[in-house]
Design goal:
This protein is an all-alpha fold and 157 residues long. It has a domain of 69 residues. It is built from 3 helices and no strands. It is elongated.
């Protein structure tokens, strides 16, 4: 009986080891799922961090752009003010100023002088402009090309 007991012991030990291996494999498969879940969470966290860094960098660059725009605008305003005032070397003495003012009167108007007849033809007594006239050749009782119903004929029934 001792041989049968040893064989039974070995069979029981083998069944116990087999059961333990099955349990360990199930635990390992669960841990691989947990490991995958952990990896996905870490990847997602890294992605969120990357997106946050991107938006922070974008906000910083936009703020820098705004500050640079303000600096350029101030520079242009200062330049406009400094260029609007003539330099001291352009200051004229009173004699030269009078000479320029006399010559300036010749160039006050750039309009071509017209006769009064032309002005009367263009404007009526209130100063309003007349509408264009229809100069297309036509019979006296025909409507001109500028008439609203020109070219609209009643269709023959």
């Amino acid at each position: 009986m001792s041989l049968v007991s040893v064989i039974m012991f070995l069979v029981g030990a083998l069944l116990g080891v087999g059961g333990c291996l099955l349990i360990v494999r199930q635990t390992r498969s669960e841990s691989s799922i947990e490991k995958q879940l952990r990896e996905l969470q870490e990847e997602f966290t890294a992605y969120r961090e990357n997106v946050n860094q991107h938006f922070n960098q974008t906000a910083k660059l936009v703020n820098d752009l705004t500050n640079n725009y303000i600096s350029v605008q101030k520079h242009l305003e200062d330049a406009a003010e400094s260029f609007a005032q003539p330099p001291k070397s352009f200051e004229l003495n009173p004699e030269e100023t009078e000479a320029l003012e006399n010559k300036k009167e010749e160039f006050l108007s750039l309009e071509i002088p017209t006769s009064e007849e032309d002005e009367d033809a263009q404007f009526d007594s209130s100063g309003a402009v007349e509408p264009p006239k229809d100069y297309a050749p036509k019979a006296p009782d025909d409507k001109g090309t500028l008439a609203e119903d020109y070219g609209l004929h009643e269709s023959a029934k």
